[in-house]
């Protein structure tokens, strides 16, 4: 109902005009598109030919015509950004709560690699560490004021005299009351469908767009005044001479950039003179938007050229998608990616979109907020957080220690002289294997659901596509769990019949 209300805010309460398309129809079409990786036209053709898809989007019966025009898919992506985010949160949180440990092949990931087996000594060590963190947290809270959590031992020294069995039972009871589950956190980039940007290519594209704008503004004065000279043929020759070289040197590139900056600056000056005589209302909305973007692009490129630098705040890397920023990732495949950076947390195989930003950010600053979101979703803090080294800052470690959360990974500070023991190496190896499940989730999204190349052109629609891809992955995950339950019940029934 809440989703229907938010969707209905875009429409007027009137009987005039086209009939409103229901939310189920628009949302169902978007899910079909992302699940099958189709274009807008292909999606509508598939729905027209398939009765099951028509039932999925809520049609009362089979029809041979398309339910709506393919251009409506863009409007759905613009309008349903918040609805998709809330729906993904609902599906993932409900699925994580309803999924039991025995329905997962791995408690943390929900993958297909089998449960990680730990020895009795490792289990006792983990539970003892949990107990120590609870005791220290209770001791600190008792100094600050009355405790708000369950009753704990009075001092850390008392735990050393407790028997092993009592320690295990006490730790398990405290964990059951306070912290439960494992949360995996990581960040990745969802690259946009843009060509690799270079300063020379951007300036050449800007010059060509400015030449088209000059032609549009001069069109009413053809035969009355002379057309402004733009040197378009002369300007293209040095660009082609450099772009055809396999590895042009820095001096050659700098000279070509200087020439293109001169042509772009000249064209901007011509447009400014034309604007004094002719209003810019002749330009289309897209052309006027490109003109504003090129003004900022020229300022940035001129500043970097004069400063002999390649760094710029809010640097524009695409004229038709000016919201995209370079995201430095340091990966072996691509050191820099161009798209939105997303922070994702995963619980029992379900992915939650915790933050989406077009600007680069340090993911370690999001860990505390992500843990608090986990508490709101599940009703308790996680017992274990699996994260990269970048998340293990002093602030995050202090927060996790205060709330009895185990942030897995080596401790800060100087490493011991003797190095880690064989048991510590084994635990670290198992922790790394469990944490890699979220990398597999990213790989699933990028290889199968289009997260590796976002084809939407607008910032709003791109955010909808990213959220929708996570939603489809969570729906697929829930479907696998449902099939697992069905097959398990069938196999148990067959075994019971054979035994009887």
From TrEMBL:
Residues 385-476 form the Transposase DDE domain. InterPro entries: Tnp_DDE_dom, Transposase_InsH_N. Residues 5-79 form the Transposase InsH N-terminal domain. Pfam families: DDE_Tnp_1_2 (PF13586), DUF772 (PF05598). Residues 422-431 have a biased composition (Basic and acidic residues). It comes from the Bacteria. Residues 95-119, 410-431 are annotated as: Disordered. This is Transposase. It comes from Paenibacillus algicola.
């Amino acid at each position: 109902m809440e989703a229907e209300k938010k969707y209905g805010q875009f429409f007027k309460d009137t009987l005039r005009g086209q009939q409103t398309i229901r939310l189920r129809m628009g949302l169902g079409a978007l899910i079909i598109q992302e699940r099958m990786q189709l274009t807008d036209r292909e999606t509508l053709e598939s729905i027209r030919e398939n009765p099951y898809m028509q039932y999925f989007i809520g049609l009362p019966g089979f029809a041979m015509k398309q339910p709506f025009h393919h251009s409506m898919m863009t409007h759905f992506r613009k309008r349903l950004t918040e609805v998709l985010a809330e729906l993904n949160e609902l599906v993932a949180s409900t699925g994580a709560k309803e999924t039991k440990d025995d329905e997962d092949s791995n408690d943390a990931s929900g993958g297909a690699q089998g449960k990680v087996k730990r020895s009795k000594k490792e289990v006792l060590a983990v539970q003892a560490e949990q107990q120590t963190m609870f005791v220290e947290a209770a001791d600190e809270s008792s100094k600050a004021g009355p405790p708000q959590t369950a009753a704990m031992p009075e001092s850390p020294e008392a735990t050393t005299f407790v028997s092993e069995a009592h320690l295990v039972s006490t730790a398990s009871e405290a964990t059951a009351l306070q912290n439960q589950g494992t949360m995996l956190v990581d960040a990745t980039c969802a690259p946009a469908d843009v060509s690799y940007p270079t300063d020379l290519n951007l300036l050449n594209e800007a010059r060509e767009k400015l030449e088209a704008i000059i032609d549009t503004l001069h069109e009413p004065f053809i035969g009355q005044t002379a057309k402004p000279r733009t040197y378009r043929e002369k300007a293209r020759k040095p660009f082609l001479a450099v772009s055809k070289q396999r590895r042009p040197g820095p001096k050659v590139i700098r000279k070509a950039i200087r020439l293109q900056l001169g042509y772009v600056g000249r064209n901007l000056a011509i447009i400014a003179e034309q604007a004094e005589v002719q209003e810019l209302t002749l330009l289309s909305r897209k052309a006027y938007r490109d003109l504003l973007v090129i003004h900022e692009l020229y300022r940035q490129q001129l500043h970097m050229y004069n400063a002999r630098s390649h760094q710029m705040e809010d640097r524009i890397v695409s004229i038709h998608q000016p919201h995209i920023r370079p995201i430095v990732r340091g990966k072996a495949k691509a050191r820099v990616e161009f798209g939105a950076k997303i922070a994702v947390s995963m619980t029992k195989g379900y992915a939650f979109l915790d933050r989406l930003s077009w600007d680069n950010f340090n993911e370690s600053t999001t860990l505390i907020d992500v843990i608090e979101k986990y508490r709101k979703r599940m009703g308790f803090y996680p017992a274990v957080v699996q994260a990269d080294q970048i998340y293990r800052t002093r602030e995050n470690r202090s927060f996790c220690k205060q709330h009895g959360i185990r942030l897995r990974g080596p401790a800060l500070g100087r490493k011991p002289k003797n190095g880690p023991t064989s048991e510590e190496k084994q635990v670290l190896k198992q922790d790394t294997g469990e944490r890699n499940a979220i990398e597999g989730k990213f790989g699933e999204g990028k290889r199968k659901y289009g997260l590796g190349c976002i084809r939407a052109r607008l910032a709003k629609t791109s955010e909808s596509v990213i959220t929708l891809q996570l939603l489809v992955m969570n729906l697929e995950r829930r479907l696998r769990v449902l099939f697992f339950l069905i097959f398990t019940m069938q196999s148990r029934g067959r075994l019971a019949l054979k035994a009887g």
